[in-house]
Amino acid sequence: MTDEATAFVPGHLTGFFSAHPDADPSAAGSRGAGVTLSHGVDVRVERGGHGGHPALVTLNGDPVAIDAVAGVRDALDATDAAVTAETPLPLGAGFGVSGALALGAAYGINAAYERRRGENDLVSIAHCAEVEAGTGLGDVVAQARGGLPIRLDPGDPDHGRLDGIPAAPRVEYVTFGSVSTEAVLSGDTTRLTAAGERALADLRGEPTPSRLVELSRRFAREADLLTDRVADAIGSVREGGDDATMAMLGDTVFGFGTALSDAGYDPEACGVHPAGATLRARDGGSRHTRAGDDE
Amino acid sequence: MTDEATAFVPGHLTGFFSAHPDADPSAAGSRGAGVTLSHGVDVRVERGGHGGHPALVTLNGDPVAIDAVAGVRDALDATDAAVTAETPLPLGAGFGVSGALALGAAYGINAAYERRRGENDLVSIAHCAEVEAGTGLGDVVAQARGGLPIRLDPGDPDHGRLDGIPAAPRVEYVTFGSVSTEAVLSGDTTRLTAAGERALADLRGEPTPSRLVELSRRFAREADLLTDRVADAIGSVREGGDDATMAMLGDTVFGFGTALSDAGYDPEACGVHPAGATLRARDGGSRHTRAGDDE
């Protein structure tokens, strides 16, 4: 019997979004669009052994508190699940790391504890935990899909339809620091949401990578979210005739192809991740040997 | 400017299904569940040069007529698109090769002809073309999703919700020959559909790989679709304590792990494909350099 499992969850850069609060967390969320990354988070779950705070996980060797993980442990009745994660992505810089930890914990617990839930259930559990923690609105559903996700409706898989941009560009990004998602989402989001709705309507008319960057840049300016360092970087990239935009929400600039390296930056580079969150094959592969209660 | 593009579309083994015809092909389709495969179809589209029958494609070097591809060429106004495909999978044996050709042609034409459609649009076009050709009901939407897809509703992405089994088992399969999808779908599907609905309800209660195989095997027997050779193979596998079932619709047996090799067969083996149809990165990657009409 397997008592551990590892899931990979892609990072997610949000380009633009609108906020849609709701008393029901499964219906709350955001609309918008972004980029899932081949850089992501490996989340390993071991059955038993965790006796600390329900939000605690080990991230790149250090203990950190991720409130959304506490919600997932609770929803799947696995408060003793040990969660250990490794990632090259920074926390709090707009890469959806907290969403990835929540979603990876849900997939890992489901396998290690044989909870026999379907993927939509697991995504819903992680989405609701992230919404209730106030750390994100749309990362989890995007990270469950992969590609270049367009979130047409807010909410979990029972509420929110998704679409995608059919392309797989190279991605470059540079992180200067953190922006507090909680602080932005708990403030007045009226202007932000109006700008996000405009960007979504325009992207649906022309769902291409270059249009995503252009509309995201317009959104960042209209929502007044641009940091000085990101604004400088975007200016440098555009002087060279290319384009870049800001990750929502982090002090992070990203673009496609060689947008940032051509402008003299030394960016991290990765690909678009074609798939959503997945169990590592070793765990899934071992599952077939159980089962088979006869008809 | 890119005038060619290549898409990869995973193969799809349907385990069980129910048929839901509708005068509107976007609402028509099937419910059911199956397995997408890392063995799939590479579909290359070149702009211009095709002057033959609108259904003709080159498959593993040979000209074949795939009616669904004619529908895709027509819907995307690209009747001169040359479509060349390579696959290790047999045609007509239950692997969704015709659906893969339709979906890959849609993705490839969209990129090579700069049609700027979103993924849902492309999936809908391929789904409708496949339904109208009578060669499949649910392969296209499953192949656009990847994983172990559960089709909760019939129809294209605007109509049909999907779920998935969170696992990634190794897959083994042996093909003995063809079964005509058109002949089965054009006959009385009442009994088949009742059996498929029962299997779906039961799988939703326990969405695991082993339950998928078990319920698919029950479906094949209840729907009276088992071929002699598949029935023999399933018998051999079950004598050894493992399980296997039939691909819908083909004279093909499949199982997870080492189910078929342990029973003495010499199966093909592959993995579950974690992603749906995707453009090969070269094409997607080149797209960012276009565009950027300024605000």
Automatic annotation (TrEMBL), chains A, B:
Its EC number is 2.7.1.169. Residues 71-147 form the GHMP kinase N-terminal domain. The keyword Transferase applies. Pathway: Cofactor biosynthesis; coenzyme A biosynthesis. InterPro entries: GHMP_kinase_N_dom (IPR006204), PoK (IPR012043), Ribosomal_Su5_D2-typ_SF (IPR020568), Ribsml_uS5_D2-typ_fold_subgr (IPR014721). SUPFAM superfamilies: Ribosomal protein S5 domain 2-like (SSF54211). One of its GO terms (biological process) is coenzyme A biosynthetic process. Keywords: ATP-binding, Coenzyme A biosynthesis, Kinase, Nucleotide-binding, Transferase. It catalyses: (R)-pantoate + ATP = (R)-4-phosphopantoate + ADP + H(+). The keyword Lyase does not apply. One of its GO terms (molecular function) is ATP binding. Phosphorylates (R)-pantoate to form (R)-4-phosphopantoate in the CoA biosynthesis pathway. Belongs to the GHMP kinase family. PoK subfamily. This is Pantoate kinase. The lineage of its organism: Archaea, Methanobacteriati, Methanobacteriota, Stenosarchaea group, Halobacteria.
